[in-house]
Amino acid sequence: MTLAEKFGGMEVHKAARAIGIKFSEDFVPASTFVTANGMKLHYLDWGNHGKPKLLCLHGGAQTAHSWDFFALGMRDQFHIVALDQRGHGDSDWSQEGDYSLESHVKDVDAFTDAIGFKQFVLVGLSMGGRNSYGFTYRHPAKVKSLIICDIGPETNKAGTQRIGEFLQDTEVFESFDWLVKRVQKYNPHREEKQIRGSLLNNLKQLPDGRWTWKYDRRRGLRQRGGGEITVNLWAELKSIKCPTLLVRGGNSDVLTPETAKKVAATIPNCKLVEVPNAGHLVQGDNPVAFEKAVRGFLGAPGKV
Q: Looking at the predicted structure, is the pLDDT value of residue 109 above 90?
């Protein structure tokens, strides 16, 4: 049993309540695998089959568990599934090192077919946000509504450089506590307890006692993936017709206010919301305000 399996399920409910997330049941999602597009993909199924469907895509170097607080708060009204995208979490790594937008989109298409998600709300952060609007452009009939979190076709160089600096020299490390302190410096928006809980699902301990990330470090930040920025993406955004919400972290150094406004103006039916006291990892930095923004967009009343 991993540390995440031992402590993650118990701690997430306590931590969620402590920060103000309201939910009716201490639900633990089903950890499930399916083969799609030639990849064995892992996902978390938060139950309530028959409710409106909602698919969550995490950011780079993260896992499906990055949506735990959001899913706990929203699951009474939605059938939520969070996917470990290729090369992340417990999903297969690409043997070719292919983490391109095109391959991610093919994965999501095959994955949603496999689990019977014919039409759904699609929400994605950072890399997952890029994959979300790339998917929506290519498969518009499947996406009922789109929620893009803190990403656009252009990103602020200083912000992406800071992410790279944070990940540098962390491929293998001796101490869990050492990384906790490193994250605290990188992301002051989160309390230490929340950082520890999230890291349990993003790391694995090696047989020699050291630690490493649960994602394919060969991918790099730009190796066929992860961060293609092309003029074509602006044209694709212009073609998206479904209702769209763009969420920017109020303190984000990755998506600038100017780029966020440009994205919102480019997508024909797009609303822009800034979440205060949040950086790039917006749904984890201020989960309550993020949920409120999403509920307002989807017309889903909050809990009293």
A: yes
Whether 303 is in a domain gets the answer no
State how far the Cα of 258 lies from the Cα of 59, in Å rounded to an integer: 22
Strands 30-36 and 39-45: antiparallel
Residue type for 103, please?
A: S
Could you read off the pLDDT of 83-103 as tens digits, one per residue?
999 999 999 999 999 999 999
Structure tokens at 295: 């509920």
d(CA 124, CA 136): 11
pLDDT reading at 249 higher than 60: yes
In the chain, how many domains are there? Answer: 1
> CB neighbours of 217 closer than 8 A, spacing ≥ 6?
171
Place of tokens 């597009």: 37
pTM: 0.92
CATH number of the domain residue 43 falls in:
3.40.50.1820
All residues at 6 or more sequence positions from 292 whose CB lies less than 8 Å from its CB, including other chains: 302
Q: Give me the domain span that covers residue 14.
A: 3-298
Please, are residues 105 and 225 in contact by the beta-carbon 8 Å criterion?
no
